[in-house]
Automatic annotation (TrEMBL):
Keywords: Signal. It comes from the Eukaryota. SUPFAM superfamilies: FAD/NAD(P)-binding domain (SSF51905). It comes from Eucampia antarctica. Residues 1-21 form the signal peptide. The keyword Signal applies. Residues 7-127 form the Amine oxidase domain. The keyword Signal applies. Coiled coil: none annotated. GO terms for molecular function: oxidoreductase activity. This is Amine oxidase domain-containing protein. It holds the Pfam family Amino_oxidase.
Length: 128
């Protein structure tokens, strides 16, 4: 319900005080080399499989037999044929419109997931 603006205010103050602040240099080199590649290597060294560019059609999940509420995601249906892939862990990195499309309706029984549908979004663009 309450979100702190402290981080953003700190950044704004940095820009206001220092003329060179527009060049933060938080990452030396390209994001691909300095950030993405090391993360991918770390995950692949641990036998994690990363599926990029593969449309996720549906989250497959278990239901609590007593309440009928979703309890645990066990896999996803991917690709044009909705092929079932089962996993120990599923991590979905999506924007708000994307997660709204992916979440099963049964998840909306939980306030945390239902609140996602109340989020407003604005388009953004970055130039690097």
């Amino acid at each position: 319900d309450h979100i702190s603006a402290r981080a953003m205010l700190t950044i704004f103050m940095l820009f206001a005080i220092r003329t060179e602040a527009s060049v933060l240099r938080m990452l030396e080199g390209s994001p691909q080399t300095g950030l993405h590649d090391p993360i991918v290597k770390y995950l692949e060294d641990r036998n994690v499989k990363i599926h990029l560019g593969t449309p996720c059609r549906e989250l497959v999940h278990e239901l609590d037999p007593e309440s009928g509420l979703p309890t645990r995601v066990t896999g996803i249906k991917i690709g044009a044929k909705s092929e079932l892939k089962q996993f120990d862990v599923v991590i979905a990195a999506l924007d708000v419109p994307g997660i709204k499309k992916l979440l099963p309706k049964s998840f909306r029984q939980y306030d945390t997931f239902d609140n996602i549908y109340n989020l407003d979004t604005v388009p953004i663009a970055t130039v690097q």
